[in-house]
Amino acid sequence: MRMNDALLGAILLGFAGWVWWLTSFFPAFPGQDYGPNLFPRILAAGIGLCALVLLMRGLRNRAPLLTVEGWVVEPARLTSFLLIPGAALAYILVSEPLGFIPTAFLLLLGLSLWFRARPAVALPVSAGMTLLVHWFFAGLMRVPLPRGILDSVL
Amino acid sequence: MDALMQAFGLVFDPFVLAVIGLSAIFGMFVGAMPGLTATMATALLVPVTFFMPPVPALGAIVTATTMAIFAGDIPGAMLRMPGTPASAAYADESYAMTQKGQLNLCMGVNLVFSVGGGLIGVAVLIAFAPMLAEVAINFSSYEYFWLACLGLTCAVFMSNADPVKGFLSLFFGLLLATVGIDPAAGFPRFTFDDVNLMGGVNFIATMIGMFAVSELMRGAVTVDATTKVVAQAVGNLFRGIGGVFRRYWLNFLRGSFIGTAIGALPGAGADIAAWISYAVSKRFSKQPEKFGTGEVEGIVDATSANNSALGSAWIPALVFGIPGDSITAIVIGVLYMKGMNPGPTVFQENPQLIYSVFLIFILANLIMLPLGWVAIKSARQILRVPRNLLLPVILLFCLVGSFAMTNSLYGVVLMLCMGILGWIMEEHGIPIAPLILGLVLGELLEQTFVQSMIKADGDYLDFFSRPIAGVLGVVTLTIWLVMLARGFRRGPVAAPA
Fold first, then answer.
1. Which of A153, B87, B104, B156 is deepest in the core (most CB within 10 A)?
2. What residue stretches are annotated with the DUF1468 domain (chain A) (predicted)?
């Protein structure tokens, strides 16, 4: 899925303007000519310039506004694609209340079954990898992985 | 001499050697799996090395990347799928050799010349880095400003992408680096009153998102694609290598030196080294018409080049703190995390650390020979690891790794956002590497720029007042002009009527 250069340029131009607007709230210090807004403004101008070139180029080329690849219209493959950010989002939402071990296990099992791994393989691999990662990060490296519902057991 | 002995003691420690051994196996595996890159291996390694002392942490990164760049050749020859982008330049050629029944020779050449090229790159690193550090010790903010500009410009210039999109990516990376407490005035910029953003955009979580999560999103679409039958190397890998060396020793040296030179340039790494040296090999070959039909000549050049680039990329990273490629960008991030700001002072204050890096590089290239042999022999098994299990496991590593970098979900949220952004960027042909270099160098660039502006009191000519700064400035401006001219010339041509 890709936007044409004109649309991309227009969005980026808006972004550059927004950044510039944000820098106008940065304080200036008396006697100091080069304040905290100088560098971000140069960058916003740079992004704006690039965006302008893209915009003009896109208007000249007249490509379709949005190009969509074949897999986007295949529901199964689109789901596969969305499952990766979806799984990360799910981890963000439930790992604190549920705890690392159940979340990671369910995540691994769910994904590998969706990708058509055989359950007889997916189950032990998911369990094994969850425990291995937990042992390494929580045990060996003392990363405070959330304990969740297993708090009393661990 | 004392520092060298200390370095030996640091490296030949059982724990460090065990880390090196494990990283070597990890690197071989990641490199040999198509779709998993050396950069991704490094990004996933950093959280693991986070709690280690500097020497094993750096050792893990050096070893894993060295192995991964070689191992990328294996699926190139067997499946016509390069394991890492650095092997893409000659994957077709290698596969053509396999079809001619020369898989053994192809793999043997890849292994031996990777080791050779790698050692040449390390030799140049050892010879030049300390010398350059002596010069760099006198650098002022002007020189650093221009060096950072030059490095960032090279990153855009050397990538094959459209320069406009390259600069876009670069500016965006630099802008991301400004998020957080402003170093000069202590004012929080672009933090939206969020406590996490006050500390800035975490670099490793960004890397994991950009290089691993976006790759997983791409991979998820094709995960159930049927795997091809894998050719297997049987018999003696080293038969005929002597003959190849006698015939193409000049190619080996040429490839290694081109690779070393490109690697040492800030912003360009192993993949570009391989492409260029393959092209040079074809250009100067006595029989260029045979290229692409399974001739070993171009492979000798390119496989030496990509491994030699790896070592020399550490020259600008260690001496100036300016990364030569995405991998050394991560290394610089790691050095900062360990409280050792890369730059010429490291050579004076912690010479044993520098010597340790040198030793690990030599060691990594030497153990590549036996380990690479094992990897080639067991390639069929490695390549049969099912992707439908691998993909979820890598995602879990990403999640835990980015969590560990901040000890909070902030790292995971950042990783997810950057993963989606990275995917969108790649879809639109916007390269990721300039953004990463911008994020790493942003603070240095802003600081040296503002310092220089204050010193010069607005007089831009002052930026050229010191000899080295003047040369660097003129070189940088020349590259900008060349790119501008190229852009103008390309503009009307690119637009179809």
1. B87
2. 7-146
Q: Would you kindly state where each structural domain of chain A is located, as residue ranges?
A: 2-67, 71-150
| Token pair of B115 as six digits | 């080791």
Enter the pTM of the model: 0.88
Cα-Cα-Cα-Cα dihedral sign, residues A5, A7, A11, A16: positive
Task: Among B396, B397, B402, B435, pick the best mutation site for testing chain A contact (most A Cβ within 10 A).
Answer: B396
Determine, for residues B407 and A133 on separate chains, whether the beta-carbon distance falls below 8 Å. no
Domain coverage including residue B292: 2-222+237-489
Residue B17 lies in a domain: yes
Does residue B431 lie in a domain region?
yes
Q: Tell the burial category of B6 from Cβ atoms under 10 Å away from its Cβ (0-12, 13-18, 19+).
A: middle
Report the mean per-residue pLDDT for chain B.
Answer: 88
- Report the pLDDT value the prediction gives residue B493, as an integer from 0 to 100: 37
For residues B316 and B323, the answer to whether their CB atoms sit within 8 Å is yes
Report yes or no: B92 at the A interface, CB cutoff 8 Å. Answer: no
| DSSP 8-state class, residue B225 | P
Query: Which residues, numbered 6 to 35 in chain B, qualify as contacts with chain A under a Cβ-Cβ cut-off of 8 Å?
Result: none
Nearest to A92 among B388, B412, B449 (CB): B412
Q: Which residues pair with B180 in a beta bridge?
A: B189
Highest mean pLDDT among A123-127, B262-266, B456-460: A123-127
The answer to whether the Cβ–Cβ distance between B216 and A84 falls below 8 Å is: yes
Count: domains in chain B? 1
- Give the residue, B184 or B140, on which the prediction is more confident: B140
Chain B CA closest to residue A119:
B389
Q: Per-residue pLDDT tens for B131-148? A: 999 888 889 889 999 988
